[in-house]
Amino acid sequence: MKNESKPGVSAMSIYVPRLRVPLESWCQWTGNPWDKIRSVVGRSFRYPARHENVYTMAANAVLRLIRNNDIDPRSVGFFALGTESSKDNSAGAVIVRGMVDRALEQFGLPRLSRNLEVPEFKHACLGGVYALKGALRYANTDGHGKKAIVVCSDIAEYERGSSGEQTQGAGAVAMLVESSPKLFSVDLSQAGSASDYRGPDFRKPFARHFAPGYTSGVNRLHDFPVFSGKYSTFAYLDEAGHAVDEMLHRLNVSGRDFVRDVKAMFFHRPYHLMPVQGLAFLYVRALAKSRTSAAELKTLCDEIGVSPDAIRTEAQSKPDLYESVMDGNKNPPEPYPVTTQLAAHVRKSAVFRDLIKNKMSLGADRAMDLGNLYTAALPGWLAAGLEEAAETNLALTNETLLAVGYGSGDAAESIPFHVVSDWEKQALKIRFRAALADPVDLSREQYEALHDGRDVPGLVYQPKDEFIIARIGDTHEPAFQDLGIEYYEYVA
C-alpha cells in the first residue's frame, strides 16, 4: 500500500506538564489496587500547573515543532487547533498563534505568515483527528505548496473520588503536514468515518456549572465531564467498529487480511486497556465477517458455549443506543452482548496475546506515562511509537499503520497511513522521552490542593522554556474591556 505521493505528516512534537501524579502513590492515597490500576490504566498522569492551560500547552508543542525541525514560520498557511478543553468560546487557534509569534521574535525568528487560516476543531477526543484531516485536505487542494500545522491540546480532569480520577492527564501534540511528507503519507479516500448521536455519552453541557452541588467544596471552575462509563464504552466499540468497516470496504479487503498485513495499530487511548478491548472486539467482528475464518470462530465460540450465528448477527446489526436512553433507561442494555463476551475470552488467548505483541505494542509502554490527553491521546501514542521504532531500528519504510480515533457523543475515524522513505531522521526529532523527562512528583497534599484550587503547600517549581499565563484582565468599562482575558508570556 505504498503511497508516498499523497500529503501527510513530516514532523511531530509533544509537550506535557512537569507536574506528575504517580499512580502507585495515588493508589496508596485512595486505597485502590495498584496491580489493577497499572494493568488497566497505566503508571502516571500529568497535571497542569497554575500558570498553564490548553493554550500554553499547545503553544509549547508548536514552538518545539518549529524549532526542532527548522520550519520557516512564513511557509505555514494553515494552523489548526483540536481540543475539547477550550477556555474561550470565541477563539482558539489564533490565541496560540499569537503566543507563538511573540516567542519566535524572542528567538530572532519571523512570525507565522499573516495569511494564515486559524480554525479550531471540536468533537471530544476526535477533534484532533478532524483537524489533521482538515490540514491534509488543505495540503492536497488549495495550499499551493504551503505547510500546515495541527496541534492537539487537552486537559482531562475528573472529580476526586470519581471512577475517572485515575484517567486524568494533560498535554499537547503538534504535527507538521506537507504535500510531500517525511514521516508518513495519508490517502483520505481510504479512511472510514462513522458517527451517531448518543445523548448523554460523555458531555460537557455548560448548564452543569449552575447545577446545585456541581464541583462543591472546590475553589475554582472545573471542566469535569458528565459521563457514564459502561455506556461510553459501548459507544466507543460500536462507532469504532463501523468506522473500521467503512475503511475495509473502501480498501476492498477483509478485516482478517488487513490485521495480518498491517504493521502496527494505534487506537484512541483514554487508558491503557481500552485499545486492547477495542482490538479484541474488532477481531471478533473480523472473524464473523470472514468466510475463511468460520472454523476459528466456531472453535472460540465452542470454548465458552456461544453461537457463531449470534456473533454474525451482531456483526451485521446497527443498534440504536440512544433510543434506550430516550425511553428513560439509565442502564442501557449492551448492544453486542455475545460479541463482547467472546472478545473478553479472546483477550486471554495466546493468539491474541501474540497479536497485541506484534501489532499493538509499539510505543505502548512509553504511553503508560501519558495519562489521558483526549484529542492528543492518539497522536501522543503514535509519537511514542514512531520514536521507539526509530530508536530500535524497526523497519517501517513502505509499511501500513492504522490509526483509529474516537470522540464521545459520538464519532470515529479509521485511517490507514503509510510510512515513507527515510522517516527515521524525523522520528528521532520527536523527542518523546525527552518531553517526559525531569518530572516533579506531587505529594497527596499538593495534588489535592492543586486539583481543588487551594494554595499548594511546599511546591517548588519555576517555569522555564515554556509559556505562562502572565495575568488576567479585569477591566470592564465602556471604552475598553478585557475582563477574563488571559495574557501570556514565554519564559526562556
The coarse silhouette is globular
**Low-confidence runs of at least 5 consecutive residues:** none
Instruction: Report the radius of gyration as a whole number of Å.
Output: 22 Å
Q: Helical segment tally?
A: 18
Biggest sheet record:
10 strands, mixed
Q: Supply the CATH class.
A: Alpha Beta
- The tally of domains stands at 1
Q: Structural class per helix/strand content?
A: alpha/beta
The share of residues in helices is 25-40%
CATH architecture descriptor text: 3-Layer(aba) Sandwich
Supply the CATH superfamily name.
Answer: Thiolase/Chalcone synthase
What is the mean pLDDT? 94
How far apart, in Å, are the first and last alpha carbons? 44 Å
CATH topology: Peroxisomal Thiolase, Chain A, domain 1
Taken as a percent bin, the fraction of beta residues is 15-25%
Number of strands: 15
Describe the structure.
It contains 18 helices and 15 strands. Strand 11 (400-407) and strand 12 (411-419) form a beta hairpin. The chain has one domain (8-491): Thiolase/Chalcone synthase (Peroxisomal Thiolase, Chain A, domain 1). The chain has helices at 23-30, 34-40, 54-68, 93-106, 127-140, 229-251, 255-261, 273-289, 294-304, 308-315, 321-326, 337-346, 350-359, 364-367, 377-391, 423-428, 432-435, 444-452, and strands spanning 8-15, 19-22, 44-46, 76-82, 120-121, 147-156, 169-178, 184-186, 192-195, 264-267, 400-407, 411-419, 440-441, 466-472, 486-491. It is of the alpha/beta class and 492 residues long. The strands form 3 sheets. Strands 1, 4, 5, 6, 7, 8, 9, 10, 11 and 12 form a 10-stranded mixed beta sheet that branches. It has a 3-stranded mixed beta sheet with strand order 3-2-13. Strands 14-15 form a two-stranded antiparallel ribbon. Helix 8 packs across helix 12. Helices cover 38% and strands 18% of the residues. It is globular and about 70 Å long.
